[in-house]
Predict the structure.
Amino acid sequence: MLAMALSVGLCPLVTVLGIPLSLFALADIKRNNRRGRRVAIAALWVSLLSTPITGTFAWWWNAKVRTALLDGPVAALRAGQQGDVAAFLEGMGGASGPSSESEAARFLSSVSRQWGTVQSMRQTPEQPDVQAPAGACWVGYDVLFEHGAALGRAKYVLQSPQGTYVLAFQALVLTAEDGAELRWPPVEEAAQ
């Protein structure tokens, strides 16, 4: 029975334990002439099927969501500060067009003037107390720049209101020591 319980777990490290436990159960059933052979065989099959599925999901989650949340939108911000405004826009939700590019260039210029080039972002244990729509979350960051540091928060969207998966940052707020904020996109102010 333990083999069956572990077989349907959500973690591949747990589901893989269902394989040896199922084999042990089958050997014990045969040796001691016990009941439960069908359950042990079912647990073995469930483990053999669920382990690669949960393993693939865990790998995907780590590569596409967890790492992005830990690092923050540092790559997009760095690319934008190095002159690649299109990469910044793509990394921040994909807004494009001449007005978006000029607004992004102004935002990036303001960030560079105030703090210099971004060096790193590190997720903070204290998360911002800001409401996000369903399918999104705000994540807090300590942002280290060439000429100082800032507190940051970024909105990470998992799912759009239409139900499609997005998996991208869509907003960034940098707060200076004096409390002044720089926001991307500027219209995100109204959504707070």
About this structure: Residues 72-191 form a domain with the Nuclear Transport Factor 2; Chain: A, fold (CATH 3.10.450). Strands lie at 118-123, 136-145, 148-159, 165-175, 181-184. The longest strand covers residues 148-159.
